């Protein structure tokens, strides 16, 4: 509250230091996650990555801890510009937890796939992004969970953006049609907002298709 960030971090460290003897496990984990989140917020990405390692060492063989700390870790790698490490971490978690039925795990797997797409863009591998977005849709497109439905809608918008960067405007328009058809009349206001964005994106894509067609017309009066 008073922006005394280092004192807050020190307090979390004190809680973590006492976790082996006196501090309940849930409180120690809460302190660890809060510390990492604050380090990321402050742009101290290297410290955040190391803090994730510390938490995992303190809570070995805990699948939930591995999942959550790796999510933080990927954000740290991306902040450091270490996108190959981020990709490796994303792939590892998707392999480990991709079939986990727990809703929290499903949500984080979807988040990891979107983080993977972001790192692919940063590495100049934007042509691989549509397939990652399709994987999110394939895994979670029929999932009733509200958070995952939003993740899928956003992934389809991301796919359209990636296709647009490759000048594949017909495919962009088709993907935007899918978003509108699925979510245009949805009760969730977030999904309706994403659907409205899809309509706008489709109009822009159709404009690009028209402009490209005009570029290929023969000159007027030619012959």
Structure overview:
The chain has 223 residues and is an all-alpha fold. The protein has helices spanning 5-17, 25-41, 45-58, 63-80, 83-97, 103-122, 129-140, 146-165, 169-183, 189-215. Helix 1 (5-17) runs antiparallel to helix 2 and helix 8 runs parallel beside helix 10 (189-215). The longest helix has 27 residues, at 189-215. The N and C termini lie far apart (75 Å). The model has no long low-confidence stretch (mean pLDDT 91).
Sum up the overall morphology in one term.
Answer: elongated
Work out the strand percent: under 5%
User: What's the helical proportion of residues?
Assistant: over 70%
Mean pLDDT: 91
Count, helices: 10
Note the quaternary state here. Answer: single chain
Q: How many angstroms does the end-to-end distance come to?
A: 75 Å
Number of strands: 0
For the biggest sheet, the summary is:
none
**Radius of gyration, rounded?**
22 Å
Write the H/E string, N to C.
Answer: HHHHHHHHHH
Point out poorly predicted stretches.
Answer: none
Sheet/helix structural class? mainly alpha
Quick summary:
The protein is mostly helical and 223 residues long. Helices cover 77% and strands 0% of the residues.
Question: How are the SSEs ordered, and which strands pair?
Answer:
Elements: H1 5-17, H2 25-41, H3 45-58, H4 63-80, H5 83-97, H6 103-122, H7 129-140, H8 146-165, H9 169-183, H10 189-215
Helix pairs in contact: 1-2, 2-3, 2-4, 3-4, 4-5, 4-6, 5-6, 6-7, 6-8, 7-8, 8-9, 8-10, 9-10
């Amino acid at each position: 509250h008073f922006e005394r960030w280092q004192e807050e971090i020190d307090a979390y460290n004190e809680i973590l230091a006492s976790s082996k003897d006196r501090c309940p496990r849930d409180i120690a984990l809460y302190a660890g996650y809060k510390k990492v989140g604050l380090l990321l917020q402050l742009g101290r990405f290297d410290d955040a990555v190391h803090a994730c390692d510390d938490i995992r060492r303190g809570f070995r063989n805990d699948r939930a801890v591995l999942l959550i700390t790796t999510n933080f870790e990927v954000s740290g790698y991306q902040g450091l510009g270490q996108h190959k490490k981020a990709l490796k971490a994303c792939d590892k978690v998707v392999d480990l937890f991709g079939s986990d039925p727990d809703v929290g795990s499903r949500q984080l797997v979807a988040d990891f796939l979107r983080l993977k797409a972001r790192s692919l863009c940063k590495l100049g591998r934007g042509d691989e992004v549509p397939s990652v977005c399709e994987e999110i849709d394939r895994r979670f497109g029929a999932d009733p969970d509200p958070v995952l439905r939003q993740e899928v809608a956003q992934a389809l918008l991301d796919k359209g953006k990636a296709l647009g960067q490759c000048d594949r405007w017909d495919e962009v328009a088709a993907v935007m049609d899918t978003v509108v058809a699925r979510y245009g009349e949805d009760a969730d206001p977030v999904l309706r907002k994403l659907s409205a964005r899809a309509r706008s994106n489709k109009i822009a894509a159709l404009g690009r298709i028209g402009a490209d067609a005009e570029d290929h017309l023969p000159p007027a009066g030619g012959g």
